[in-house]
Amino acid sequence: MKLKTFLTTTALAALMAAPALAQQISVKAGVLNDRSGLYADLSGEGSVIAARMAVEDFKAAEKGIKVEIVSADHQNKPDVGSTIARTWYDQDGVDLILDVPTSSVALAVNQITREKNKIHINSGAASSDLSGKACSPNTIHWTYDTYALAQGTGGAMVKAGGDSWFFMTADYAFGHALERDTSAIVTKNGGKVLGVVRTPFPGTDFSSFLLQAQASKAKVIGLANAGGDTINSIKQAGEFGITAGGQKLAGLLVFLTDVHSLGLATAQGLVLTESFYWDTNDQTRGWSDRFAKANGGKKPTMVQAGVYSGMLHYLKAVEAAKSKDSAVVMAKMKEMPTDDPLFGKGSVRADGRKMHDMYLFEVKKPGESKGPWDYYKQVSVLPAEQAFRPLAESECPLVKK
Amino acid sequence: MFELLGIPPQALFGQVLLGLINGSFYAILSLGLAVIFGLLNIINFSHGAQYMMGAFVAWMCLTYLGINYWAALLLAPLIVGATGIAIERLLLKRIAHVDHLYGLLLTFGLALIIQGLFRNQYGSSGLPYQIPAELRGGVNLGFMFLPWYRGWVVVASLIVCLATWFLIEKTRLGAYLRAATENPTLTQAFGINVPLLVTLTYGFGVALAGFAGVLAAPIYSVNPNMGADLIIVVFAVVVIGGMGSILGAIVTGFSLGLIEGLTKVFYPEASATVIFIIMVLVLLVRPAGLFGRAA
Amino acid sequence: MADIAATDAPAAARSSGEADKGTLRLHRAIMIGIAIALVIAPFVAYPVFVMKVLCFALFALAFNLLLGYGGLLSFGHAAYFGMASYVCAFTAKNWGLTPELAILLGTAVSGGLGLVFGALAIRRQGIYFAMITLALAQMVFFFSLQTPRFTGGEDGIQAVPRGKLFGLIDLADDRALYWLVAAIFMAGLLAMYRIIHSPFGQVCKAIRDNEPRAISLGYRANQYKLAVFVLSAMLAGLAGSTKAIVFQLASLTDVHWSMSGEVVLMTLVGGLGTVFGPIAGALVIVSMQNYLASLGAWVTVVQGVIFVICVMTFREGIVGVISKWIGKPL
């Protein structure tokens, strides 16, 4: 592996090309994510590539903005993550931190960013607390959150007739949040929750919990877990003939890379919610092709796409504000509408929630897939206002009256 | 219909059976540890990593060479065993004269290296490995749906455990082995090549881990971290059974799987802890473990 | 066990009173050297980094106390480190305790935990002891995982206030906090040094080297071992609590078994059973983690390689080797 620090632009050429700009702004962005663990495939180096592509596409150099990108591995540990964030802000002059999957690390970085008055654009983490209880004037939660996932998958499944649920919940904060948000949606839409089983995290054998889910006779088994737990539970559900028996699995947090690792034979029929899929339109396809070329043939996940989109919006705000002062740039980012080829038009809300549509997908059957990475068919689109928690219900102190 | 503490008997039987399946893995893994510990006196911390290697070798055989599951079941333990022999010859042998705790530290380091290398190469979200065609599907037992493959896991591990027990307790080779465990110097004096025996024993113990890895590959995803946390549980199993006891390892392996299965019915949150609680209780009453001799 | 611990001092240096005096003088000089280094450090290095090194050095010292002077290799020291860090973080955040009280409380709780676990574990030795401590620590891990009300589960306890020392001195500033951490570290080091060289420490050494003989001389070996165990757990707890205040965070990482492995590695690199080895080891390993962070999974591999190299060819560790050169125990 190469060392992960690179200069993305050449400053001199930029200065020549943009005489209109009186002074050069140089910003330093840190991509902080999991580069070796469970989430390395869905964020990792891919997110760095995405950030770099944003700088290229924005033509930052020509606009007099010098961008340097650094990256590091937080190993999904809050202590490692917060140490890196502190060092970046204190020592290395980093202006914003991007990505940060794993809710626990994200919450830590969120807090440090606020303390040091810098900017954090989160793409990888799920916890809706980032724009809720823990919201901060310095953080934007970009790509998705547990509330939206619950709205998407939970709401759609109930509407499609899956009105009785059994939850398999990874026994930790993130799993509980996902279960809580989803069961609220399920009951609100007239469904009922027949039972819940809390599984130790991380787990490898879910068969006994699956048997309990089977015995509950619920129409839908909600998987309130992530990563390896989700992969294993889906795999074992297939093995025990649960899906064949008519019960549906709802993956509440499943990424493209998870489906890739499961294989279509196992994952087929799974319903899931994402905010981005590479094969949505010409623009996403074109961008994803470029991305895949740089990323060893792997298509982007929504997290990586979110890093691109967030970085792009940040650069636009810096250009518009002609400053990189955190408060000024944050104000600009919230004031300007967002627009990029991947997520289309959207906005950033006062509580730091990035608003865009979410999509409900179903995983294709092996026969329907035309080749590698052709995995999803779109079931429906959730408009942003429905997908994300309304401001009126928000626990965020920034928007509370 | 009668119920046991509010749990329908179907569910109970189902969980008991599942516990037995998990117990199979505990049994093979703790057996391997016990065999190694008996002769080398070291706790093989890299056992979990070698279990993971077994699964990966099976996956590589299938992906790169097109070798199917059944051949891999034989081949992967041999390959993993061979790396074990190399480790013993190159590393463990050279520190045999110092405190055995260094062996623990060395294998801990090896586990870090092996897991790190696989993680770098294959990422950590896991790779799929399909259940062999012959064992897909399953049978409805009335109280539960038993996938053929799970049934096969129990049978295979029972066979391997019993064969190992027979080999060590009832054959001449086993007799040499036991003799070398008791008094290596004297055994050497009788003209038995003890160093070779030690090397082969380590290789064999590690091969058992590799075998368990192949068995596990179709059930769990093939993942660089798959052995890391499992091994700690297996350590507890070994402590409960009494370190170095072959029969103890097998019996405790299976029975702790059962107990864990039952815990999942009555109090799922504790299912990860129950083995450690039992370990403490056993240690209070019998510090040497259930089947171990007092030191 | 004995031969791991016996690397601590070349026999020659131990025997004569003359050499002992020289050794004491040398140790005093090193202590003063460390104190000076502590004063200079925040001006040349990033204070948070130095504080991290100090916390881990204290942790490694605690581990080494048990190994070097109790002759017991614990593979579960994360339990005391992590539990103290939780208690400290929880009480500072939810009960509003001042930092010094929170740290003391964390230390006390891990001492209590050490008493219970120690009583169970010291009944066995060597590898058995290592395994039992590992399994006990794993129970603490699962306890922490399953009591999110107390530990915050996967999220850990975040945003722990640094608070005001004695209700007066604001610790939000890194420099101010640094002096506190440096003082705690120095106090821990001196306390440990004092323990080792007290009559109590001498008896412990005697038990380590020859337990039956010590028993026949009338010492209750198990009580001494338990006492060392509890002291070691408390020091580990002190380190863990301090870390919670420094990073304003207590998380599952602190109680995971890989943390127990890390502290063994630090001590191994620095020199098992030497007085100053753990400090050197902590400095090396923490710096390595810091500077190699960008290498991702390779960090694990590098750590593994260091482990293997140390065990194969470098069993004395850095300080052990230096100690051999100069012929004095360090």
Give a written overview of the molecule.
The complex is a heterotrimer of chains A (401), B (295) and C (330). Chain A is of the alpha/beta class and 401 residues long. Chain A folds into 2 domains: 211 residues, Response regulator (Rossmann fold, 3-Layer(aba) Sandwich), CATH 3.40.50; 153 residues, 3-Layer(aba) Sandwich (Rossmann fold). Helices cover 40% and strands 20% of the residues of chain A. Chain A has 14 helices and 16 strands. In chain A, the strands form 4 sheets. In chain A, strands 1-3-2-4-5-6 form a 6-stranded mixed β-sheet, with helices on both faces. Chain A has a 4-stranded parallel β-sheet with strand order 8-7-9-10, with helices on both faces. The radius of gyration of chain A is 21 Å and the shape is globular. The N terminus of chain A is likely disordered. Chain B has a domain of 196 residues. In chain B, 69% of the residues lie in helices and 2% in strands. A two-stranded antiparallel sheet of chain B has the order 1-2. In chain B, helix 2 packs across helix 3. Chain B is globular and about 60 Å long. The model of chain B has no long low-confidence stretch (mean pLDDT 87). Chain C is mainly alpha-helical and 330 residues long. Chain C has one domain. Helices cover 75% and strands 1% of the residues of chain C. Chain C has 16 helices and 2 strands. Chain C has a two-stranded antiparallel sheet. In chain C, helix 4 crosses helix 14 and helix 9 packs antiparallel against helix 12. Chain C starts with a helix and ends with a helix. Chains in contact: A-B, A-C, B-C. Chains B and C meet through helix 4, helix 9 and helix 11 of B and helix 1, helix 7, helix 13 and helix 15 of C.
CATH superfamily of the largest domain in chain A: Response regulator
The strand count of chain A comes to 16
Calculate Rg of chain B over CA atoms. Answer: 19 Å
Shape of chain B: globular
Helix content of chain B: 55-70%
Oligomer: heterotrimer
Please give the domain count of chain A: 2
Proportion of helical residues of chain A: 25-40%
Biggest sheet strand line-up of chain A:
1-3-2-4-5-6
Largest sheet of chain B, in brief, is:
2 strands, antiparallel
The Cα radius of gyration of chain A reads 21 Å
Number of helices of chain A: 14
Number of helices of chain B: 11
The share of residues in extended strands of chain B comes to under 5%
CATH architecture of the largest domain in chain A: 3-Layer(aba) Sandwich
Structural class of chain A: alpha/beta
Query: Roughly what is the average pLDDT of chain B, rounded to an integer?
Result: 87
Q: In CATH's first tier, which class of the largest domain in chain A applies?
A: Alpha Beta
